[in-house]
Amino acid sequence: MISALMTWAVAWTEGIPIPYSLRTDDGITVLLLCCFFMSSYVLSRSRKFLLQSVKDFMLHRERTSIFASSTAGDMRYLLLLILQTCVLGGVCIFNYCNDISPDLVHHISPFLLLGIYIGLCLTYVFPKCLIYSVLGWIFFDETTTSMWLESYSTLLYFLGFALFPFVLFIVYFDLNLQSAVIIGLILLFFTKILMLYKWLKLFCNNLYGSFLLILYFCALEIIPCFMLYQGLIQLNDYLVIKF
Q1: What is the pLDDT of residues 51-60, one digit of tens each?
Q2: Long-range contacts of the stretch 110-114 (C-beta < 8 A, 24+)
Q3: Are 91 and 28 a contacting pair, CB within 8 Å?
Q4: Per-residue pLDDT tens digits for 135-152
Q5: Under 8 Å CB-to-CB from 168, ≥6 apart: which residues?
Q6: Residue among 114, 102, 107 nearest 30 (CA)
Q7: What are the residue ranges of helices labelled H in 60-109?
Q8: Whole-prediction pTM value?
Q9: 71: left (phi over 0), alpha (psi -120 to 50) or beta
């Protein structure tokens, strides 16, 4: 009788699925360690270059773009930092989707989901660089366009530095969903404000132009964020149905 009860208790206990947690995922830990070592390596190699980029962004220096004066090594480091920003953004999206739809990881591999979300961030970031280049080539001179692309890249890789401690908090300190969303929106808000500041500095010559610029800014920066969110929700629904 006792043996039967013990067998039933074990079977009942084994039948309770353990909810997925990013904190216990070794893959997430390895990914964050790689981001940490990569940031440390880039800072040790291009610290002066990164600091100069921040000074140029804030002081709005009228000079040739750093893209023309940087070395091939510096450009590789910057691309790595932008890639890191997309990776950390994918982790943030993964954590958000896991909180609002915990059954998703039971249908699809967490690594596949994370790869999809990182790819979504890459799809959002790099085509925008192409769009900015095309628009700058049509409406503005090469120097102004290069300065904007430089500023856009500066914001992206320093956003990655800001996202790293944020990701550590949401993964290892069990930051609740509401707080994570608020902090994430604050980071996004300040990034967009800095982008708007740079737009006004580079492309605005009068008050009338500033109103048009704000409309263009909403079309290129604000509306795509809502489209990305709606696409993310639709993508999750599709994945649940498909798998």
Answers
A1: 888 887 877 6
A2: 110/20, 110/25, 110/27, 111/27, 113/239, 114/27, 114/28, 114/31, 114/90
A3: yes
A4: 878 777 778 888 888 889
A5: 32
A6: 114
A7: 66-69, 72-100, 104-107
A8: 0.84
A9: beta
What's 206's DSSP letter? S
Cα(117)–Cα(86) distance, rounded to whole angstroms? 9
Of 208, 163, 229, the C-alpha closest to 190 is 163
Cβ atoms of 66 and 52 within 8 Å: the answer is yes
Q: How far apart, in Å, are the Cα atoms of 174 and each of 27, 47, 109, 118, 189?
A: 17, 32, 21, 21, 23
Q: With beta carbons less than 8 A apart as the criterion, state whether 92 and 163 touch.
A: yes
- Judged by DSSP in three states, 208 sits in helix
